[in-house]
Write a structure and sequence with these properties.
Elements (H helix, E strand, L loop, with lengths): L2 E4 L4 H12 L5 E4 L7 H6 L7 E3 L5 E3 L1 H11 L10 H36 L6 H22 L12 H15 L9 H11 L5 H4 L18
Parallel strand pairs: 1-2
Antiparallel strand pairs: 1-3, 3-4
Helix pairs in contact: 1-3, 1-6, 4-5, 4-6, 5-7
Length: about 220
């Protein structure tokens, strides 16, 4: 069976886990604390980063963007990056928005500071970064609401990798209870729809050592 090397609250790993489940591709997960720099893992990915997908024949695919494109190629019957050039461009634009902009402005400032630093033993949380994360997430939730006023899903009329990437990041922050959902009802309604999909079940079952999520984290009705 294909194996996905991952870390619990990595949005990039979660993106691939959700995508594999949405495409109904069987896989097993292997926890890989990338900060340990295991030689065996570095042999799979010299960059030392998760996610890494290993197929049953030994094929290794690294980097969440490359893995997503690879899965789209091997499982085209469930398209998640759009079927026309303009649709694919919009999906990729929004995936980049969340994997780059949201990640640097929110995920790293909240999840990175509050959890990853503690687990990896890389220092104390930076309070100024945490304040920036709390401030920045408001803008991103407003943008999600703006898109949802005009579309059924973030990139158009069908669920896509854009929704998966956005939900992956927000689910990590939501594990901390740091998403102000009640101030952003349109974004909350969108998240509730994707949160209730079967592909999200394993994400909601995650348990990070020494830290439990708030009750609403796994509550489909918030």
């Amino acid at each position: 069976m294909r194996t996905l090397y991952h870390v619990w609250l990595s949005p990039f790993c979660r993106k691939i886990r959700i995508l594999l489940a949405e495409k109904k591709l069987e896989f097993q997960t292997q926890l890989e604390p990338e900060w340990e720099r295991r030689p065996e893992f570095l042999a799979l990915n010299p960059a030392g980063e998760v996610p890494v997908l290993v197929e049953t024949d030994g094929t290794v695919v690294c980097d969440s963007a490359a893995i997503a494109e690879y899965l789209e190629d091997i499982s085209p019957e469930t398209p998640m990056i759009g079927e026309e050039p303009t649709a694919r461009a919009e999906v990729r634009r929004l995936v980049a928005w969340f994997d780059r902009k949201f990640n640097s402005e929110v995920t790293e400032n909240l999840v990175g500071e509050k959890i990853i630093k503690r687990i990896a033993g890389t220092g104390q949380p930076d309070s100024s970064a945490i304040r920036a994360g709390h401030s920045n997430i408001q803008y991103h939730l407003d943008y999600i609401a703006y898109l949802m006023e005009r579309r059924t899903w973030l990139a158009g009329e069908r669920i896509s990798l854009a929704d998966i990437a956005a939900a992956a990041h927000l689910s990590c922050v939501d594990y901390l209870g740091d998403v102000p959902w009640n101030n952003h009802p349109d974004a909350k309604d969108w998240y509730a729809r994707i949160k209730s999909r079967p592909c999200f079940r394993s994400i909601l079952a995650d348990q990070v050592p020494l830290m439990n999520p708030p009750k609403a984290y796994a509550d489909l009705d918030f």
